[in-house]
Structure formats: C-alpha cells, structure tokens
Backbone:
C-alpha cells in the first residue's frame, strides 16, 4: 500500500483525469474513456454511492453524445446485489406453488439460460434421476436460484455486458480489460481505508485504468495525497 501514500502518477495504462466537478463534465470524461478503449469489457467502479454523483454520471451517459468529440451515448449496466439478481430471474418464472418435475423443467427452460438457471435446471434433473423426486415447490426452486446466483458471484461470475458499473465491494476478485474509477466527495473511512479502496479499484484493470475525481480538493487528501 506504500505506493498509494502519494498522488498516483499518470503512466502507461493509468490516467488520473482532471476533476469532473460537474456531472456533465465527468460524463464527458467517462464517455471519452469508453470511446478510446481498444476492445474488451469496461467496468465503472466507485467506492461510494452516497450523494449520487457516480449514478448521475452513468445515467447521463445514456442520454446522448457528450463533449466536443460527441462520444456516446453508452448504456452502462449497474450490477445489483445477489437478491436483486435472483428476484429479477424469479420474476420471469412461470411456476405454480407446487408442480410436477416436468412442469418445473419446462418453466426453467423458458427463461434465458444464464449460469444460475443452468445450474438450477441441473439440480432439478439430478433430484429427479438420483433421488426419484416427482414434485417441487416454487419456494424450493426460488431458494435454489438464489443460492446459485450467490455461488456464481462468489466465484467471480458477473454480468455479460461489456459496460458495467459497480461498487468496489462488488468488484472484488474480478478483472476487466479497462476500469474507470469515479471518486466522489462522500467516501467514508480513515486515510488507510480510502487507500485500500482506491488500490482495490484500480487493480481490477488488466490493461488500463482512468480515475475521475469529483473535485480538485479531493486530490489534496487521502488517498491521493
């Protein structure tokens, strides 16, 4: 962590961009970073959602072209937590409170086959063939889906979108071709905690990382000073 005790220096693959003190300016900086990427997935990572700066920037990015280069619009998908993702899948599940195995399998196959759904279907089929199960409750299937979503996230699985936004916590143990860190005013914790947050954010990048801070004043304090 000693390397973060002073202001990070621009270099190959890393840029600390001029402060995006307003949402429109920060959005332009983000749009330029995305436009100039050389393929691969990009993650927008923020240490804190308080104050709404990062969410406002990402939302504005989808509205239209930005800045004099007219880059954009870009749709960046915010990652939810395990519960949000599981509920989104379950919402599309056409299944009664209690159903035969064949009906359950048909309902699961009718939903787009992402990782958790494939694992849930495999679990049901195994229960039928190995345990002789004939019926399943909806509550049971919902619990399996939620468990499979959680397991996938624990093993580093995530959304398949090329452009995603998330917190530092959600980005742990994952890597992306490019990372844009949006650092707002409202970041809690002491200096060491902030340095760890910044370190964890920028080291998610495999090829390049840009950091956008909300204000020039932020650069005079930890983790940048």
Residues:
């Amino acid at each position: 962590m000693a390397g973060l005790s002073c202001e990070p220096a621009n270099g190959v693959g890393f840029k600390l961009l001029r402060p995006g003190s307003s949402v429109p300016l920060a959005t332009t900086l983000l749009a330029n970073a995305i436009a100039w990427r050389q393929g691969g997935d990009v993650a927008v990572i923020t240490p804190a959602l308080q104050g709404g700066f990062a969410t406002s920037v990402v939302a504005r990015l989808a509205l239209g072209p930005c800045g004099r280069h007219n880059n954009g619009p870009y749709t960046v998908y915010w990652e939810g937590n395990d519960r949000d993702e599981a509920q989104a899948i379950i919402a599309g599940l056409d299944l009664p409170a209690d159903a035969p195995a064949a009906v359950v399998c048909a309902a699961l196959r009718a939903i787009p086959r992402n990782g958790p759904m494939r694992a849930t279907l495999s679990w049901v089929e195994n229960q039928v063939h190995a345990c002789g199960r004939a019926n399943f409750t909806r509550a049971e299937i919902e619990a399996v889906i939620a468990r499979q979503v959680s397991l996938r996230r624990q093993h580093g699985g995530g959304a398949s979108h090329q452009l995603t936004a998330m917190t530092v916590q959600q980005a742990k143990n994952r890597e992306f071709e490019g990372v844009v860190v949006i650092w707002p005013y409202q970041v809690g914790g002491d200096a060491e905690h902030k340095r760890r947050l910044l370190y964890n954010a920028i080291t998610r990048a495999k090829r390049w990382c840009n950091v956008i801070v909300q204000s020039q004043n932020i650069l005079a304090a930890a983790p940048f000073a």
